[in-house]
Amino acid sequence: MIDNTEFLKLIKKKKLEDFEEEIKSALESNLEKTLSEKIKEIKNRRRIISNDNLKDHIPAKDLFSETEIKNLPYWVQEDIDQAQVIGKSRNIIQVSNGKKYHVKNRLNDLSGGEWTFFLNSVINTRYLTSGDEGFAHHIRKIHPSPKPPQLMRQIIEFFTKENDIVFDYFMGVGGSLLGSSLSNRRAIGIDLNKNYIEAYKEANKFLNLPEQTTIQADSIQFLGDAQNLEKCLNGEQLSLILIDPPYGDMLSRPRTGESIKKTGDTSPTPFTDLEEDLGNMNWDKFLETFHLSVINSMRHLKAKGHIVIFIKDLQPKDKEINLLHADIIRDLNTISNLKYLGTKIWADHSVNLYPYGYPFSYVSNQIHQYIMIFRKD
To answer: Is 126 found in the same domain as 79?
Structure first.
């Protein structure tokens, strides 16, 4: 199943001849696993199609007006000549490849299967930082923790529809703005640091994407005056607030582990040296300031709109458990018209492991971050 000639060429090119059998065994094992999963998927798809064939079918073009069709997701519109409305409820449209869309879906443009996939509480990724899959990482890497546009796109596509507005008032180098452009959404981003905004624009140009609205400002002060954002929205409302805040003084602390390994430097890497930067505040001050920013940003969020927040915990120290995500959930859940819905865990397997504590004590390699999800009532 593996082209032996091409395999040997690659092994020789990588100078891994001594590991030929080990690599081949790993490839065959992964291939067998992938094949098994694909066969299971195909069998399940056949079963669903067989069940659907027993239901009522009406051509979608016979049931929906041209105006109603224009309000359907693009992937349904593109196949509208073949699309069928199935079932007695007449709410399910099935396109020719089997994907289904529920016409009462007011949240997003996803099929039922895509919706279900997103509900997995754990996201495992190993994003590349070079080539096309790096999405201009060579430009965005000036930020201490640039978010992958692919991941942001996945979140944006679940919590918004096409052309909705996404707001990130800690935009950094614009991972959420790039994700918005990749999914045909509009976005507004704010950051204190002019260099980060310029890096976003450079990366955006490199990727040949439509440029989103950016504002250089102290987002806390900016949001304090409701008119500031109202001027940008022109009477519209936000569908999603997607933020990765500089949570307290984490990056103002000396670096450890992989950072030392890469650079030999333990110096802190704060986002800025400005006093008003949340990344330079102690935790209590951060919680107070961040709480107010959420309340102020929610003024512009539509009813049933969502707020999605990234955060990473600190290592426990003495009796301090440092569960930052739990602190934020408890704090924001006290806001009367904001409801906590749950958390996804993002495991970033591109992070190199480091032997913390070896050989004396357990210290976790934290490759995961928490993605906390809230909804405005």
So the answer is: no
Q: What is the pTM of this model?
A: 0.87
Domain boundaries, position 224: 122-376
Total domains in the fold of the chain: 2
- Look up tokens 């704010």; give the residue: 190
Distance CA 74, CA 116 (A): 20
CB 167 within 8 A of CB 179: no
Range list of β-strands (E), the chain: 57-59, 84-86, 92-94, 100-102, 122-125, 165-168, 186-191, 213-216, 238-243, 301-311, 338-348, 368-376
Residue 210 lies in a domain: yes
Mean pLDDT by groups of 10 residues along the chain of 377 residues? 78 89 89 89 78 79 94 97 93 92 97 96 96 96 95 98 98 98 98 97 98 97 97 97 81 51 52 64 91 98 98 93 96 98 97 93 95 98
